[in-house]
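hiii, so i know i said id send this last week but things got crazy w the move. better late than never?? heres the sequnce for the chain we talked about at the cafe, plus the structure i predicted for it. fair warning i was half asleep when i ran it
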Amino acid sequence: QVQLVESGGGLVQPGGSLRLSCSASGFTFSSSTMSWYRQAPGKERELVATITNFGGSTNYADSVKGRFTISRDDAKNTVYLQMNNLKPEDTAVYYCKARRIPIYTYWGQGTQVTVSS
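okay and structure toks below
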């Protein structure tokens, strides 16, 4: 059974930090490209960051460059999103995605991040 379980969300003040985790099971994590997406109320889901398999090349949305860092631990089947200097506009539900073209795309259930004073 495939599972992607996000954790680490919560309420944080502007300028604060959070680290999201996404724990995977039921598929070959190391072969998968992993991504974080987010969706704010009334907005479309947007790509935040991606890390490829094996080599671990990364890409970020312009809005989070220099503040967020995506990483993976294949031994733990886990992908992380370190978020620093958080802003109110980062408030959203954050989703983890696993993809291996053209075999599969899997999504987690999401974790809420709220940035507010």
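btw The mean pLDDT is 96. thought thatd interest u
miss u guys!!
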